[in-house]
Amino acid sequence: MIPFGVLPTVPKRDLRPSRLAPIVRIGPIAWLLVLPACELGAPSSFPDDADGAGDAGAIADYPDGAPGAGIDAGAASDASAPPSPDAGSGLFGEEDDACFDGLDNDANEAADCEDDGCSAAPYCCVGSAAPACCTGAGTSLSVDFDACAGTDPRGCAPSLVVFGGARLEGGALVPQGDAHSDGGLVLGPALDPTRERVELRARITAPADGCTDCLDVLALGLAGPPADGRVLADVAVMVRASRRDVALVVAGEAVASEALVDGAEHEYVLAIAPDGAVTLHVDGRRALGASASPRRDRVPMLFGRTHVPGDAPTARARSVSIRTSGCDIPAALRRDPRPTLPFDGVAWDWRAVANPSIAADGDGHLVAFSLDRAIHLARRAADGTLRLAGSGRVEAPLFVPEINDEVRDAELVREPTRWVLYATRQVDGEAPRIVRADGGEGHAESFTALEDVALPADVPWAESPAVLEHRGQRYLAARTEVDAETVIALFVAIDGRGAVFDWAAGSAAGSVLVRRGAEGSRFDQDEVADPDLLEDRFGLMRLYYAGRRGTRWSVGVRVSGDGLTWREPGAPLVLSGSGRGHDALGVRHPSVLLAGGRLELLYTASNGVTVAIGRAEGAAP
């Protein structure tokens, strides 16, 4: 049984190997550029309670204004000289390199993402909710009630849903409702503020002198569907004419307010960011700010109560609009509440299924996984159904281990004409080592015998291979030991088959990607393991890996633009134990697939009794 765990997030930091170590074969490293994106795909079909790392906690208000979009332009590298850690990789040009080289290139006491000129660079936007970073596809809606005929708001836009008797009066929306329930409009489909910036805007008029013995409130915000006629807003701005103020509401409670100064029309802009920062601007002036815990599937609403005597003037909205934009938030994943493996139709008995590796293959996918100290294959069809591949029988694994032998941690690599499989092999009493096998021509699911992968002479042991093919070079991340500490390190192939590797940065110390966290509250405080490498559409490298705190495991992420400097987002935790179901206690062994605008994460899941393979998905970076 595999133990697992959960942990709070910590501030981001740039982590760079020693720049004093000698660097060789840096040319290949220059192409190891794997970056984030902000484009977002369609909403997941998973239930609302199948979240990623968890709701965002309270976070300080986001400052006024978007970060600059310039570049921290540093010292240019000589294009005729071999690339080095002090010279940019050249893939994006010198200006882009200056945002991930670990140096204060313009001598302003700010390096890389801490420099305003780099704040909008893709490398710095991983995990960022800043306006300059959130440029992915979103939704928009604009309704001008002045231009609508009649009293039925649905005449303005067919998508509007009316509740509580809301109606148009004199070219403005009046929520109606009564002393006990709300009225208003559902403005559109549910939004996901955990992965996109949401901006709600309305022009509202409200009497400044208010009224007595009445309710006159008009609100704009995000909430769940109305229950028993009442709206409990996650986040909202409330123009409370009956109280003569404007309030910022979080989780149904007013957390800040200011006086309503006059009865003129004002524009209210409410912005909600994935990091929990909430700001209210009134007529372009930042008025109020707060922190929230964003939840997905929140409905945009214009709502309130109009319970006033006679024909007294009331709060009303002249127009309303919605605009969202996608952010690259690694933790914005939805879990499948059911294990992906084991699947129906196979007699798995008590066996523990773990250590997945998924790779695209035509319209389907090939999945390698561990079972009974051996490696098996499964084939996933385009409709998502799974069947055993290879021999097709549980009792006949892809690789039959010898006595006291174990083969695990499979890593599938799809070459043009065949599969290659890397794995960990360990004989009882011996150190683990990396092995590989070639598949048959035509991508046949038959493989040669396992052979040892050659690593540098100063590697004492290695396990959990992760392989990335990029621009004709093959890179290998693995768990190993450097200076008596268990780490994740990077290697580069120096032969044509990917069977011989050397340190990627020319030395052990310079090639370390991740060490265990030094801070006591980190998810990887006690151990790091299970790397997985991938490249996104920007050409940045992402490293997903497992971290242990106590007996519990979680999955985190780091990003690199040159393979040398590795940045940890402000919230590096991607997935942790859900507290219920198959992954209640924790997750490890991530295997990430980017395809069709979606990111899919397979992982080993534990609930303390059983081990299975779980699945989560989100927007592709």
Quick one: CATH superfamily of the largest domain? Glycosyl hydrolase domain, family 43
Largest sheet: 7 strands, antiparallel
Strand order in space, largest sheet: 3-6-15-8-9-10-11
Q: Report the β-strand fraction as a percent range.
A: 35-45%
Mean of residue pLDDT values: 82
How far is the first residue's CA from the last residue's CA? 33 Å
Structural class: mainly beta
Shape: elongated
Overview of this structure, please?
By secondary structure, the chain is mainly beta. The chain folds into 2 domains: 140-326, Jelly Rolls (Sandwich), CATH 2.60.120.200; 334-619, Tachylectin-2, Chain A. It has a 7-stranded antiparallel beta sheet with strand order 3-6-15-8-9-10-11, with no helix packed on it. Strands 1, 32, 33, 34, 35 and 36 form a 6-stranded antiparallel beta sheet that branches. The chain starts with 12 loop residues before the first strand and ends with a strand. The relative contact order is 0.18. Mean pLDDT is 82; it is low at 1-50 and 54-95.
Task: Tag the structure with descriptive keywords.
6-stranded antiparallel beta sheet; Jelly Rolls; mainly beta; 621 residues; 2% helix; 7-stranded antiparallel beta sheet; 2 domains
